[in-house]
Amino acid sequence: MAGHTQRRKVTVIGAGNVGATTAQRIAEAGLADVVLVDIVEGLPQGKGLDLAEAAPVVGHDARLIGTNDYGETAGSDVVVVTSGLARQPGMSRDDLLAKNAGIVRSVVLAAVQHSPDAVLIVVTNPLDAMCHVAFEASGFPRERVLGMAGVLDSARFRTFIAEELGVSVEDTHAFVLGGHGDTMVPLPRYSTVAGVPITELLPADRIQALVERTANGGAEIVALLKAGSAYYAPAASTFEMVESILLDRKRVLPCAVRLQGEFGIDGLFVGVPVVLGRGGMERVFEIDLAPDEKEAFDRSAGAVRELVETLASLPA
Q1: Which end of the chain is more exposed for a tag (fewer CB within 10 A), N or C?
Q2: Closest CA relative to residue 314, chosen from 169, 105, 116
Q3: pLDDT at 5 over 70
C-alpha cells in the first residue's frame, strides 16, 4: 500500500511472567505490535491469544502473536530478552551463569538474524554478565545492546523514599549506578524529592536502610512469593526503556551499557545513566562521583568483571 507507514514491532523473547507482562504493557499502550517467542510449544501462543482477546476491552489495536518461530519476529525495532532459568534450590550461581549464558546466546543469535537493526534489551539475570553474552553473540555496536536493571532498582528506591517521607512517588527521583544486585550503588545526594536531595531530608541511618532494602529488593519479593520472582515492576521498567527508544524520547535512564572509558571503566557492562532514543543509547550521562561513590562504583564494576571472567572460563 503506497504511503503506508510500517508499524513499530517489538519482539519479547521468553513468555514467562516478565515477558508476558512486558508484552501486555507495550500492546496496551498502543506502542507497537508484539511478537512473544518461547521455546515451549503452546505457551507463547496461548498467552499471545489471551492478550489479543483483551484488546477489544482495553481498546487498542496492537497485534499480539505468540510463536516458537523466529521468522515471525523479522524486522523488529526492539528485541527484549527475558528468557532464562530462575535459580533453583541447590544450583550455584556458576551453574545458573552457564545455563543462562547458553540460552541468551542462542536466542540472540536467532533474533538478530531476522532483525539486524534492532535494539537489544537484556533482562535475564545475572544481568551484567548476560549483556556481555548478548553483545558478543549479536555483533551489534554498544549503542544497541542495553541491560535493564537500573530503572528497576531506581523504581524500588523511589518507592521506599516516597513511603518514608509520605510524598508522591512522582516527585521522587533516584539515582542508582553499578551492577544489578548486592553491589549496586544508589547515590543519595543525586536522589531527590521535588529537586531536594534526600540527604537534606533524611538522617544517614534511614538513608542507609533504604539503600540496603533497594539492593535486596528482588530477594525480598522472592522470599515473600516462595515460588517465582518479581515481574510487575521489572516489566514496567522494561516498558519504560522500550517506550523511550520507539518514541525517540531521549529519556535519561540508568541502563547497563558497555563502557568505553566513561567513569574510568573500559570494556565492561555496568549500570550508568544514559540518553535513550531511536538508535538505542545515544550517550552516557557522565557525572562526577565523590571518592566514596567512586570506590563503591569500582567495587561494583569489579564484581561484574569477576562474573565475566567466570563466564570466559566455563566450558562452552
Answers
A1: N
A2: 105
A3: no
